[in-house]
Amino acid sequence: MDVILFLVFAIIAVVCAVNVVVQTHPISSALSLIGVMGSLAVLYLLLGAEFLAMAQIIVYAGAVMVLFVFTIMLLNAGAEAKRGRSLTAQLLGFPLLIAFLALASYFIQRFYPGNATVHFGAFKGGTAQNIGRALFTQYLLPFEVTSILILIAIVGAVVLARKEI
Amino acid sequence: MHQLWLIPALPFAGFLINGILGRRFSKSAVNTIAVGSVLLAFVWALKTVLGLGEDRIFEHYFNWIVAGGLQVGCDFAVDRLTAVMLLVVTGVGSLIHIYSIGYMAHEGGYYRFFAYLNLFMFFMLTLVLAANYLLLFVGWEGVGLCSYLLIGFWFHKKSATNAGNKAFIVNRIGDFGFSLAMLMIVVNFGTLDFARVFQAVTAKPEGVLTTIALLLLVGACGKSAQFPLYVWLPDAMEGPTPVSALIHAATMVTAGVYMVARSFPIYLRAPAALEMVAYIGLFTAAFAATIGLAQNDIKKVFAYSTVSQLGYMFLGAGTGAFSAGIYHLMTHAFFKALLFLGAGSVIHALSGEQDMRNMGGLRKKIPWTFWTLMMAAIAISGVPPFAGFFSKDAILVAAYHHAPWMYWVGVITAGMTAFYVFRAMFLTFFGEYRGHEHPHESPAVMTIPLAVLAVLSVVGGFIGIPVWLERVFPPAEVPEEFWLVAISVAAGLIGISIAYLMYIAKPGLADSISSSLGALYRLVYNKYFVDEIYDAAVVKPLVSGSRTVLWRGVDAGLIDGAVNGVGSTSQGLGGWLKLLQSGNIRSYATWVLFGSVILVVTLSLIGAVR
Amino acid sequence: MSGPPLAWYLILSAVLFALGVAGFLFRKSIITLFMSIELMLNAVNLSFVAFSYQLKQVNGHILAFFVMVVAAAEAAVGLAIILTVFKNRETLNVDQVNSMKY
To answer: In this predicted model, what pLDDT tens digit does every residue of B62-92 receive, in sequence order?
Structure first.
């Protein structure tokens, strides 16, 4: 059961990700990205991260992607034109990607022989209560600093988007 | 304390004062300081010598070099050999300083001349007083420097500066040999001190000693103008005549002889080297005498005569008669300085004329000069009882007992010596005046030193140098044989008579002989083309080699090329690297990916990732 | 009842990351570039959570949480910058924003 769930949503995630990369019109890419995030949220649930899954939907899919869509509509971004000009990226990019993938699988293969398996419900530590406790005791400082970071981001975004820049 | 340091320090003080402040002094102030310092040095030297006795005065001033096992101190020492040299240098030196007052009176750079002369005296006295080879070398180099400065005194004349360069460079070749000898001494003896080296000589192998002795001989040949390094001395006549008298007759050129005599323990245990000394001396004596036969410039005649007489001194040393060589050094200083000063007086009287073909009949016009020069000429020809007779005779007798053929060559050379000196005398003072100047006698300040030297040339032979030096050198037991002496005197007289015949009795004879000998005469007149041979064989290849190989090849090509190459390589590299910054974000990202992949691969390969 | 091995989650994360990189390298529009960045961040989040499962600790979740926060802030500011660039250059083609060229 877990395996089937995993496979289904993993395949959805991969297909949507490929779509993000392949589609020409930005709005299609954005919608595919929402699909990716959704399936990732399910995968988080499978891994026992309930709070995180909810946060993913609310923050990422709900806020960030909406922001993206607004911006695309504001800029009236159309479909992309023909081939790009970055020779470096095109020449080196493919081999490097293959190499990167190969390396990653190799290392994963070495360090995680197929013993550890994931069962839904095996990890009960991802509750809001646990996260809250950790966040407000052990990670208090990063929490506070992050709030300031958000403040700065807001101010920056407002300043940057003014008319007379 | 004998305060030996005063002897060189007084002329050095004179040099400093005249050199730094002399420009503002009056002429009389300059020459008082210069002459005074040398006279005081002479007085002090005399006092030291009188209090000498049999032993050796040694004074250590400070440790100059302390490097591992080698210790070289600044030490002065006076023994009987040094005493002879001291008195000759300071005595003849002061006479020449006095003479220069008159000779240089109308020249520019008056204070500079006396400053250089004093500096020379300082270095020469250091050389003579030194108690180790290194301090001697300091004086050696210093007199070479002063010789260069004084030969090129009239530096506006290209020929003078060329002559100064030539003297210094040829001397350098000799100095190289000297330096190598010193290095060998340090390696083999561990010290440069005379006393310690000479004590340890008996224990060293003969090969080592022969090499050291031969290298010292190279140095001596350079400084004392022996074959093949004599070529600088005739050219050095470009300097003012007092310089020629002091440096190139009486003192500096004798430094080589002094050094060989001082190193006699080494030479006595290296007979092959000693033989070489004798051969070189004899050959140079004869060779230079033949060149002197045909010269027309009065100073050149005397220059070749100096080379020849130095050859005699080397012959004396080389046959083991070291005291005879030193004896001749002293008497030669007297009559050769007198010859040069007298020639200077003649030149001064004729307002600069040096070619003997434009002289003649001067004996009535400048009588003092004439009579004093005549004394010197008789002395150098070896006529008894004048000074030259005793010393030259001592050398020839020693030569006979060493190898008879050397004696005969020496006798013939003595004949030639008498001939060319009297040729010069007859051409200059007898016959009709062939020039256009108005000869006038020199002032007293010049003629009095001439007179003093003339007296010394006459009676100087009676200063018993061989007796004085008896304890210094091992005795060379040579029985006096009357017929040897008679033959050498006869050779001198024959030379004088031939000169008389050719230049007084039958004036046309000289020209007819020279034209009938044609090519031979031209060869001798052109000094056997030795300078030209050196130029073609040594100088030109060296200069062109330096120009093409060392300058263009190594300096411009290799070194500059390397430096410029670094710069251009950096530029090229930069030119390549800047292509990375294309302004394109995607290529930046590609490079980041590239770097990270490489990093991971490297880390895993070196095992950092377990 | 066995579940999928943990390694599969990590492989999925790697694949998603690689796809994000591919999108970054091969697309011309700035907005698409940004979305590829978000994709990469998500892939990393997935691997954080997977490790947190393996170690049975909650720290991975916290880290993923912070990544999300920062990504949100970054998205806001980044999109504002894109707006400014668009106003100045009138183009969304990233190759034409290259005045930092040597």
So the answer is: 888 888 888 888 889 888 888 888 888 999 9
pLDDT bucket at B581, cuts 50 / 70 / 90: confident
The answer to whether the beta carbons of residues C29 and C94 sit under 8 Å apart is: yes
**Who has greater pLDDT, B522 or A23?**
A23
Q: Which two tokens stand for residue B86?
A: 């001291």
Chains touching A by CB (3 or more pairs below 8 Å): B, C
A103 and chain B in contact, CB less than 8 A: yes
What's the pLDDT at B391?
86
Minimal CA separation from A2 to chain B, in Å: 31
C-alpha span between B13 and B524 (Å, rounded): 45
Cα gap B370→B362, rounded to integer Å: 8
| Cross-chain Cβ contact A103/B600 below 8 Å | yes
Rounded to whole angstroms, the Cα distance separating C80 from B372 reads 114
Q: How confident is the model at residue B179 (pLDDT cuts 50, 70, 90)?
A: very high
Which two three-digit tokens encode residue A60?
A: 């990422």
Residues of chain A contacting residue C65, judged by C-beta atoms under 8 Å apart: 51-52, 55, 131, 135
Alpha carbon distance B99, B445 (integer Å): 6
Confidence of residue C34 (pLDDT cuts 50, 70, 90): very high
In the DSSP assignment, the letter for residue A116 is -
How much of chain C is helix, strand and coil, in % rounded to 5? 80, 5, 20
Does residue C63 or residue A80 have the better pLDDT? C63
Alpha carbons within 13 A on the beta-carbon side of C2 = 7
- List, for residues B214-245, the tens digit of each pLDDT value: 999 999 998 888 888 888 888 888 889 999 88
Write the secondary structure of B94-152 as one string of H (helix), E (strand) and C (coil). HHHHHHHHHHCCCCCCHHHHHHHHHHHHHHHHHHHHECEHHHHHHHHHHHHHHHHHHHC
Instruction: For chain C, report the end-to-end CA distance as a whole number of angstroms.
Output: 61
For the cut 60, the answer to whether the pLDDT of residue A84 exceeds it is no
B70-78 and B57-67 strand pairing: antiparallel
Q: Phi and psi (nearest 5°) for B75?
A: -120, 140
Distance of alpha carbon B169 from alpha carbon B175, whole angstroms: 10
How far is C-alpha B110 from the chain's CA centre?
A: 24
Q: How far apart are CA B15 and CA B21, in angstroms?
A: 10
Among A92, A99, A107, the residue with its CB nearest the CB of B590 is: A92
ipTM for the whole complex: 0.89
DSSP label of B130: B
CA separation (Å) from B428 to B355, B374, B419, B449, C60? 9, 11, 14, 21, 119
CA–chain centroid gap for A18, Å, is: 14
Distance CA B59, CA B72 (A): 13
Name the pTM for this structure: 0.71
- For residue A86, the model assigns a pLDDT of 61
Contacting residues for B128 by C-beta, under 8 A, at least 6 apart: B82, B85, B86, B89, B139, B258
Residue B609 sits at φ, ψ, to 5 deg, of -100, 115
Could you read off the pLDDT of B8-30 as tens digits, one per residue?
Answer: 899 999 899 888 888 887 878 88
Q: Would the CA dihedral through A26, A31, A32, A34 be positive or negative?
A: positive
